[in-house]
Amino acid sequence: MPTASFTVAIDGPAAAGKGTISKGVAARFGLAHLDTGLLYRAVGRRTLDGVDSVTAAQSLTAEELEQGDLRTADVAQAASKVAVIPEVRSALVDFQRAFARRAGGAVLDGRDIGTVICPHAEVKLFVTASPEVRAERRYLELNAKGADVTREQVLADVRERDSRDAARSAAPMKAADDAVLLDTSDLSIDDALAQAIAVVQKKLPVAD
Ligand code: DC
Q1: Measured distance CA(127)–CA(196) in Å, rounded
Q2: 141: how many CB neighbours lie within 10 A of its CB?
Q3: Distances (CA, A) of 171 to 7, 10, 22, 125
Q4: 131 FRET partner, CA 20 to 30 A, in 11, 66, 102, 160?
Q5: SS3 at position 102
Q6: Which CATH architecture has domain 7-193?
Q7: Is 179 in the pocket of ligand 1 (CB under 6 A)?
Q8: Is the pTM of this model over 0.85?
């Protein structure tokens, strides 16, 4: 495990495998992990209760990230909508940067980690997969949780979120120029994780 700050930035669209890869990389190297999508989901969740998005972002608490109902399709759409608002994004920057700098190192996954939040991250990965493959993965996940959704709905949702996340002017989803691209469309999760681990391994500081 690195002793000084060591940041791994993992970006990419919904259901590309970012979450699993991030957790796996964090576990393999003993790094802390922050799923930054949860911050936007927690803010989006509050807007569904009628709270103003900027107020929700500015008053976000750690407990709100632990809520059980942040992984629904409605909350994902609400998160993508609040994520367009520059004041919402800027209210969440300090927390993410402080997390990234923690001693022992950290993995952060999201959409703008390698470009905006941690442009100097030691490792940057952009994890992607075709919309059809991502929608199928998300459909199976939602279905297993008993959600009443069709494949078509999930694909439409994935496409809608992709275009909103990539087209917004504030910190749009895109690969940093120096990110390593990892397309998981035809990879098993074990192979995708092994490739990500190999990328991180090469950048680890060598112990003296
Ligand atoms: O990663 P996720 O699906 O949980 O993210 C939910 C939404 O939050 C996503 O559609 C866009 C937004 N998001 C963002 O704009 N920037 C991030 N770093 C992480 C998420």
Answers
A1: 9
A2: 13
A3: 19, 15, 21, 17
A4: 66
A5: coil
A6: 3-Layer(aba) Sandwich (3.40)
A7: no
A8: yes
What would the pLDDT profile of 62-74 be if each residue is shown by its tens digit? Answer: 999 998 889 888 9
Atom of ligand 1 minimally distant from the CA of 77? 10
147 to 66, 109, 142, 154, 182: CA distances (angstroms): 20, 25, 5, 11, 29
Q: Give the model confidence (pLDDT) of 148-179 as tens digits.
A: 999 999 999 999 999 999 999 999 999 999 99
The encoded tokens of residue 188 equal: 């098993």
Domain residue limits, the chain: 7-193
Residue 96 contacts residue 34 (beta carbons within 8 Å): yes
97, amino acid identity = R
User: If you search the block for the tokens 């942040």, which residue do you land on?
Assistant: 70
**Residue 80 in contact with ligand 1 by CB distance below 6 A:** yes
Q: How far apart are CA 30 and CA 16, in angstroms?
A: 23
For residue 173, what are the CA distances in angstroms to 44, 63, 92, 98, 159?
A: 18, 27, 16, 21, 13
Sheet holding 180-183, edge to edge: 32-35, 106-110, 7-11, 123-128, 180-183
Substitution site in 41, 111, 125, 128 for ligand 1 pocket (most atoms within 8 Å of beta carbon): 111
